[in-house]
Structures are given as C-alpha cells and as structure tokens.
Amino acid sequence: MNLIEARGLTVRHGAETVLAAVDFTIRAGEIVTVVGPNGSGKSTLIRALIGLERAAEGKVTRRVGLGIGYVPQRLHIDAALPMTVARFLSLPRRVPAEAAARALEHTGVPGLEDRQMSALSGGQLQRVLLARALLSRPEILILDEPTQGLDQPGIAGFYRLLEEVRQETGVAVLMVSHDLHVVMSASDRVICLNGHVCCEGAPQVVSAAPEYRALFGFGTGGALALYRHDHDHAHDPGAGHHHHHHDHVHHPSPEAENA
Amino acid sequence: MPDDFLIRAGLAGIGLMLAAGPLGAFVVWRRMAYMGDATSHAAILGVALALATDLPIAAGTAFVALAMALAVTGLSGRGRAADTALGVLAHSALAFGLVAVSFLPNVRSDLSAYLFGDVLTVSAADLVWVWGGSALVLALLVSRWNPLLTATANEELAQAAGIDPRREKLVLTLALALVVAVSIKIVGALLIAAMLIIPAASARALSRTPEAMAAWAVALGAAAVFAGLWLSLSLDTPAGPSIVAASAGIFVLSLMPSRRAR
User: Fold this and answer.
1) Distance from C-alpha of A130 to C-alpha of A145, rounded to nearest angstrom
2) At B35, phi and psi to the nearest 5?
3) Distance between CA atoms of residues B135 and B117, nearest Å
4) Looking at A22-36, A243-257, B49-63, which range is the least confident one?
5) Which is nearest to A129 in space by CA: A119, A139, A117?
6) With an 8 Å Cβ cutoff, are B28 and A52 in contact?
7) Is the distance from CB of B35 to CB of B69 less than 8 angstroms?
C-alpha cells in the first residue's frame, strides 16, 4: 500500500526548477533513502511530499489520514520562546508524562524533560525530535539529514535506533542522508537525486549505477570510501545548483554510459 | 475607597491585558513587533475614518487595523525588502491618519486622546467593549492554543502534523487587529504595541514554558496598569504613557540576573 506517492512532481523556486518530473512512492514499512549532492533538491522533495512546497506540476498524494512523524533538518526554537523538552513533546497533542519519559528513554536521552530546548546539544536535540515524532505513533517517519551534527558513534547509534524502531513498530522510514555507508546497509531502496531522479533501486544496484558514480565519484572502495570523500567532494565546481544534463534514466542499466 | 473612574480605568486595563498578555507573547515569539507597530499606527487612520462616517470609533479602528495587519502579513516573510515596505506602511498610515483627522472639525483637540489613550475617562459602555473584545481574543487564542504554538515553534513540524501555519498566522492577525481596536482608548495608538511587547518580554525571564510566559505577561501587564494609574494620579502625568513607563520599569526589574530562569 502506498503511503505517499508523487507523479511527475515539479517544484520551482522562482524561475529555477528545483525538481523536475519526479516520480516517487513509499510503501508501508519500507526504508527509503534519498541521496544526492548539495542543492540537488533532496530537502525540497521531502518538503513537497509533506505539503510544505507547492507542486508547480504533477501531483503528490498522501494516503488519507496518514500519520507523519517529521524530523526536520534543523530545528531552531527562538530563544524568546521558553520551551521545556516535556512541553515540546506535547506539541501539538498532549502526551502523558509516562509516555514522554518512555520515548526519551527509548531514544537514548532519558530524564531530559525539564531542560530547555534551546539548551540541548545537537545530538540531544535530534533524539528529542525523534522521540516527539515517535510519540504520535506515525505510519511513516520522515527525516531530513537526521544525523547532521552528530559524531561517528552518534550516527551509528542513531541508525541502529531507527532500525530498532522499524522492527518494533513497522513504521516506514523516508530519509535524506549524507551518511552513504550506513544508507547502503540500512535502506530497502535508495533514490539518487540531482534535480531529477538519476537512479533508483536496491542499494547495491544504485551504488553500481554509473549515474550514481558520476555524482559521488569513481571510488572502487564502495560506499565507505565514498563516504570519506563526500563532504569535500565537488564533481563540478561552480555549478553546485545547476541541473546536470546527463541522461535522465530511472532504471539504471549496465550499458548506460558513464557521464 | 477609590473613585469610580479609577476603578473603571483599572478594570479596563486588566481587561486589555487578559488579551494583550498572551497575544503579546506570540508577538514576541514570532518577532512580529514591527507588525504590532504598523497595525496600531494604522488605527489612527481608522479613527479618522470612523469620525468622518459616524461609525463607532472601535469599528473603524478594527476595520483599518485588520486591513493593515493583512497587508503586513502578506508582506512579511518576503525578505529584506519587506522590512522597508513595513516601515513605509506603518509610518504613512500614521501620517495619513493624522492628516485626515485634521480635516475633521472639533477633533483636533481630542487627538492626543487617540494617540496616547484616555483611560481615566473610560465609560461603562467602553468597559463592556474592552472586556467583550478581550474575551473574544482570549477565547480565540485559548481554543487554538496548541496549533498556534506548534506553528510558532516550527512551521514545518506544524505542517507535518496537519496544521496549516498560514491559517494560524491569520488567527493571530485577526486577534492583533481586535486588540488594537480594544486598546486605543486605554493606551492610545502610539503605545498599544508597547503593552503587547513589554509585559511579554518581561515575562520571558520568569518562565520555563510558553503557558507560564503568557500568564506572567498578563500579571505583569496588570501590575503595570495599577502602577501607572497610581503614578498618573500622584504625579498628575498622562495615564497611558504612565502605564507604559511602569511597564518598562517592570521590564528592567525582570532583567535582574538573580531571577533569571533559564
């Protein structure tokens, strides 16, 4: 059963086309990861799927009454707004104190209830955000680069936690990620995005696809090597936001030419 | 036993703060201070309109304030150019209001009552209007408290939870226009924004949750009303500015580091 589906989704910011004719579906219980270089429209895709971006063309369909647990890329709570962790977990719907305590325990930050949101470290904040997302008992978790600002053990722990949660609750997970090595092992399906869908499929298929290698380099060491490079990697200097005009291929085939 | 006019003035002030406290908290959280200015300055234009058309002052004020608030909401969030546009709107609304009022006979002498309020002449009918309007705003805010708060904390989280941030913004815009219309008699068009922002800003240091901050804003605003009225009586100073001055004094006290709750 499709939880969210996009057909021919095109999003424009002013004159710039950020996403072009993207087809997307996610089914119950699936873990789907979106990868792509900076400025490739990953966050825009997520935002469009949630309904935060208007589709210029095409259509996004969310199953009626779909419960979404959203973990944004960054959460900035203005210092002018006093907010304890406990209060934040009850936005917008009140949750019992025990449930909140259990959720915090579950995500590895027990006992933070009385802390101010603005006083949390990056790692604590991500876990509190995940706790809040889980408290609404969602059918799908949507995470936009959830491990930004976490250290290596923190990243590994965070993905382990996600996997656990999926096994316990059967929640579908859609995430944007830079952590390619983990992505490759933890996802059912990977979508490589660069303004359009470059390639899509099982992690092994995508990591072997020429479109993917064109974007992330030609390293033979597999995803781990790619991961070490991807933060400072620029495959096309000065054109970070440009549309890459290599062939628009949805289903990679071995014959496809290297870009 | 204080005089009747003083009791009415105190009641009017408390009535105003019941709405202005929580709404002021939102104004502070959402950094809408400039919007408060623009909306309240437009109120003078509303006064002129009402006087020229024999409408009740409050209706004219509410109408123009709402129009201005909507215009400003439309402009906000469009980057730096909007800041300039807001400045243009706010000050020209005030200027046009003042010019328009000057064309009307017999009003010129009363102008300061609209600019700075005339809380000591509040009538029983005014009281009904102030409390009615305030109760309406308070009911609106309380009934939508959680969606409003979620949209204020983070628009994306709100949207993902099925809340439309634009609708919540509209609710606040409406509330703002109503509060401006309600308070013009009490603190006047120039100082309304002060009673939205200063008590809420003072409440920040005492609060750990949004609800506590809204409640403290009401309490500190009411305290400022009493202190201001007392100041006005004992020193023979204008009541509206005295209330705002008292509020500013409370704000300075709230900055004392020992009481800071972080």
Assistant:
1) 12
2) -65, -40
3) 20
4) A243-257
5) A117
6) no
7) yes
Closest CA to A174 of A207, A144, A205, A138: A144
Instruction: Identify the H or E element spanning A54.
Output: none
Whole-number mean pLDDT of chain B?
88
In words, the CATH class of domain B4-189 is mainly alpha
Check if A116 contacts B (Cβ < 8 Å): yes
> What integer is the mean pLDDT of A97-118?
91
Asked if A50's CB is within 8 angstroms of B153's CB, the reply is: no
Q: Which amino acid is at A75?
A: L
Residue of B nearest to A43 (CA): B156
Give yes or no for a contact between B124 and B158, defined as CB atoms under 8 angstroms apart: no
Rounded-to-integer distance, Cα A174 and Cα A140, Å? 7
A61 and chain B in contact, CB less than 8 A? no
CB atoms within 10 A of CB B184: 30
Strand locations in B80-238 (E): none
Q: Which of A91, A125, A143 would you mutate first to test chain B, the one with the most B CBs within 10 A?
A: A91
Amino acid symbol at A151: D
d(CA A21, CA B119): 62
Q: Do A72 and B149 touch (CB under 8 A)?
A: no
Lowest mean pLDDT among A95-99, A116-120, A155-159, B137-141: A155-159
Contact A52 B155 (CB under 8 A): yes
CA distances (Å), A24 to each of A9, A61, A184, in order? Answer: 8, 10, 19
Confidence bin at A222 (pLDDT 50/70/90): very low
**Phi and psi angles of residue A201, each rounded to the nearest 5 degrees, phi first:** 150, -165
The domain spans of chain B are 4-189
* Nearest-angstrom CA–CA distance, B231 and B245: 9
How far is the CA of B108 from the CAs of B42, B59, B101, B102, in angstroms? 18, 20, 7, 6
Tokens coding B119: 């809380």
Q: DSSP character for A196?
A: S
Q: Do B208 and A93 touch (CB under 8 A)?
A: no
Q: Looking at this predicted complex, what is its ipTM?
A: 0.84
> Quick check: bond before A92 cis, omega within 30?
yes
Q: Tell me, what DSSP letter sits at residue A257?
A: P
Number of residues assigned to chain A: 259
Q: Contact, A200 vs A190, CB < 8 A?
A: yes
Ramachandran region, residue B124 (left: φ > 0; alpha: ψ -120 to 50; beta: rest):
alpha
